[in-house]
Amino acid sequence: MVLDALTAALGNADHDTGWRKDDTCEGSSTRRVTWGDLELVFTKGANGLEPDTLTFQQWHIRAYSALTAKMVTPEGIGVGSTVGDLKHAYPEAKVTRARSIDEAGIYLTKPEGGPFIQGFTKDTDDKSAITSMWAGLACQRILG
Q1: Which of 16, 52, 85, 141 has the fewest CB atoms within 10 Å, i.e. is most exposed?
Q2: pLDDT band at 103 (very low <50, low <70, confident <90, very high)
Q3: Residue 82 belongs to domain spanning
């Protein structure tokens, strides 16, 4: 249903991996479907579900573009928003260095649990821009 709805709204996807094993995701196989800088991730048998259960698991916006500029949270936060905007919209948000050697930051909108969005920022100061965002836990976005 999710894939059909996005296809109806955005047209045919630019890329579709089909079902295959993905070591960064839970489940027996994963399908990644992209429209420009928007990626949807579907899994088969993840989260302890039956092996053939298909589930929409994650969305990921990887850059600012004409398409993703319109994709914002109900609070108005999207790729291109600032860390200051993020903190204002989500007062409980945590923004830290992605790794101690990086200049980039990483954020989590609800560090105490519940539904959340996370992603990367150019830096951790309030004027730095959000450069990506995603929600869903089935696939790792931060690799060692």
Answers
A1: 52
A2: low
A3: 72-135
pLDDT band at 39 (very low <50, low <70, confident <90, very high): very high
Structure tokens at 106: 């990483």
What's the token pair of residue 70? Answer: 């319109």
**DSSP state, residue 128:** P
Tell me how far apart the terminal alpha carbons of the chain are, to the nearest angstrom: 34
- What pLDDT is attached to residue 40? 95
Closest CA to 108 of 134, 74, 143: 134
Same domain, 77 and 127: yes
Q: Return the structure tokens found at 98.
A: 């992605």
CA distances from 100 to 87, 96, 105 (A): 21, 9, 10
